[in-house]
Design brief:
Two copies of one chain form a homodimer. By secondary structure, the first copy, chain A, is an alpha/beta fold. Helices cover about 40% and strands about 15% of the residues of chain A. In chain A, the strands form four sheets. Chain A has a seven-stranded mixed sheet with strand order 2-10-9-8-5-3-4, sandwiched between helices. In chain A, strands 1-12 form a two-stranded parallel ribbon. In chain A, strands 6-7 form a two-stranded antiparallel ribbon. In chain A, helix 10 runs parallel beside helix 12 and helix 12 packs antiparallel against helix 13 (about 400-405). The interface between A and B is large, with 87 and 86 residues.
């Protein structure tokens, strides 16, 4: 039989829009011995996590907990629990992840209407508000930070419009939570899905979500008690909505699991929960505002450095997402070859993009623990060298000086 | 704002049917810095994991990989990808997790026929074979090791019967994989779902699965390319089966992600993948047969110790599962109070059970890293003391002597 080497991953500087580097304190938390899922010490950690998630989502919602899967499991849990077959759903799309919301909603049996904005831009909120008035959807699902194009969609006027129209508003904040303000309550968002592996700097594996009482009412109207844990003589209440088609991602069941009832559902991911709790603790120790400032500062230095080199940024700057910077690949340069050289020789990872942007842009993330002065400076120096090596016509020596100017407040 | 304490879980001896203690080498693997999901070093680790899973599942199947969620996400991924609405599904139920298979199959739109065996027993295989001939199901789903009752269902004659009837056979081996033989190919199992947090001794968070070409054909007949990554001009092939209702748990998409195509789906759980790879490496280093022997030896010692105390085991001994031992709670003893005292004073966790067995039995797991002589001896000594403290009429002093006799080969 083949023998397998001991795990020994090379050190990487990860400057993609996720997954990004994990804070060593989180890595340490992952290595602690486990507790049973109903051990009072463990359920106390679960409760801490709920409380800290409320702060990070800027909400007073009762419900804030992780779904046990990667980010898209959180999106699907929310959509499959809120969308009944035949429900009208409106999805404004301005990049790859808007298409994903559409994909999931269609699989939930929704009648989806999509709006399209050119990639690299976002919607004027009035356009979405008009569509809500026109289409009268049951639910609107929209991406907040679209990593495929590096844009952020303003949301503060969509929430009130949904409330007025009786629609629920679901927001994909996978890429923004912990790096860019997500004001769940102030903006009137009914359900928000975050990601761990981006600005929270926890490994991929959980999807923090929150939802309010409007969403809860819809979920509970569809609640079924699982076969196998029904009490003797159980009768299903009359007048329930359509059953939720997933058992694993059924928020009605997850609410029972994440409440004092602690009704058995899945077996909570112990180590990931340790990691998420520690990641959230670090976010709150830094403070949300300080954290957002840090992301903006490093973005400024990165942009200054890239532009000083003579590179062009992709997309409408008025809606640029702080934590992702898209760079147009210069004519005649093989984008994948640049990425490979950065990874192989400098240990730095940056990303390509999807669909119409494949081969056209690079995407550089400045998220969470990866969003540091050291990383930005390291990347700019390496990027310049690799681009020169690829014969790109860029200005040598200017990039790091421009970034240092930003850090020195010049 | 509240401050949160540093993570500091108490040391526990976890003798439940999962989650169980994690090998320190796995905990260490969890703490290694992460790699990007498409980093060649990381995809090599993914491939190692597939290869090792094939050995553990005792299969030559091409497809063996983890689903990114807890065990029931693996069950749902397999069932939702294999069951089309209206498909006839046969589910033999002999405990709580058979009901779960039923629950998931119903949510997939199956027309389910259930068979029922009294809890504490399993089915005579001929009974299932007859039902397959009678019902002509499209799919049969059955639990291998039923942790709620501590029974193991023999399977070697079900596979051939399914093949003859043109049905697919799905097996829930969450509790048995890595602790009790699961002979995927020899028994003719079409799809098998394992668990990480039981006999593999990796934290909860992934669900290793395998499936053969018969299952693959059914899955591919339903395959849809996701919106957002469809190539320009993409047209859906004609004659496809019903779409798979989940996107996150769509095995057709997961196959593309786990093949050289590496088509973007979710972001693989880096740290959990490290942990699973290390856990599998440890299993194969020990050797499957040695590992099964170790589980049998510790079970023998545990049973000898419990019986010497005068406790009665629950359930039909002819189908007892090696890795779970169910004990009838003696008359007049408060089972929950015993569990609490064991946890609070001795740091030992054992389990209660579900539904009709709630308050009637304790369940003791001897799984994976928790399945050690030290743990069995520690538990027996503590259990005796706690039962005496609760006024149970048991024989003092005999339990550990009986267990030591087993370990000394007497």
């Amino acid at each position: 039989m083949r023998t397998y080497n001991e795990l020994s991953p090379s050190p990487r500087t990860i400057m993609t829009p996720g997954p990004v580097e994990v804070d060593p304190r989180v890595l340490r938390a992952l290595s602690y011995p486990i507790l049973g899922q109903f051990d009072p010490e463990f359920t106390a950690y679960m409760n801490d996590t709920m409380e800290m998630l409320r702060s990070v989502f800027q909400t007073n919602n009762r419900w804030a907990f992780p779904v046990d899967g990667t980010s898209r499991s959180g999106l699907e849990a929310v959509l499959t629990s809120l969308i009944e077959p035949g429900d009208k759903v409106l999805i404004p799309i301005f990049g790859r992840f808007g298409h994903l919301l559409n994909e999931i909603a269609v699989r939930c049996g929704a009648e989806v209407t999509t709006l399209h904005a050119e990639w690299g831009t976002v919607f004027d909120q009035e356009e979405i508000v008009s569509a809500i008035k026109r289409e009268k959807p049951d639910l609107v699902a929209v991406v907040h930070g679209e990593t495929s194009t590096g844009r952020v969609q303003p949301l503060e006027r969509i929430g009130p419009a949904c409330r007025e129209a009786g629609a629920l508003l679901v927001v994909d904040a996978v890429a923004t939570i912990g790096g860019v303000p997500v004001k769940t309550d102030e903006w009137g968002l009914d359900a928000v899905v975050g990601g761990t592996q981006k600005c929270l700097s926890v490994p991929s594996g959980m999807a923090p979500i929150t939802f309010n009482e409007r969403a809860e009412r819809k979920i509970l109207s569809r609640k079924r008690v699982e076969r196998g844990i029904r009490p003797p003589g159980y009768e299903e209440p009359e007048g329930l909505g359509a059953p939720i088609q997933s058992n694993y991602l059924d928020l009605a069941q997850l609410m029972d699991y994440w409440s004092p009832t602690r009704l058995n559902h899945h077996t909570e991911m112990t180590s990931m929960l340790y990691g998420l709790r520690e990641g959230l603790r670090i976010v709150l120790q830094e403070g949300l505002d300080n954290r957002f400032d840090r992301h903006r500062l490093n973005e400024s230095a990165l942009i200054a450095g890239l532009e000083a080199m003579g590179l062009a940024l992709y997309g409408d700057p008025s809606c640029k997402m702080t934590v992702v910077t898209c760079v147009t690949i210069p004519e005649g340069v093989d984008g994948e070859s640049v990425r490979t050289m950065l990874l192989d020789l400098f240990g730095i990872e940056i990303a390509s993009s999807f669909g119409p942007l494949k081969g056209k842009i690079w995407r550089i993330g400045t998220m969470g623990y990866s969003c540091s002065r050291k990383n930005v400076l390291h990347l700019l120096g390496a990027f310049e060298a690799v681009l020169l090596r690829h014969g790109a016509e860029i200005k040598a020596g200017a990039s790091l000086q421009a970034a240092l100017d930003v850090y020195e407040g010049k």
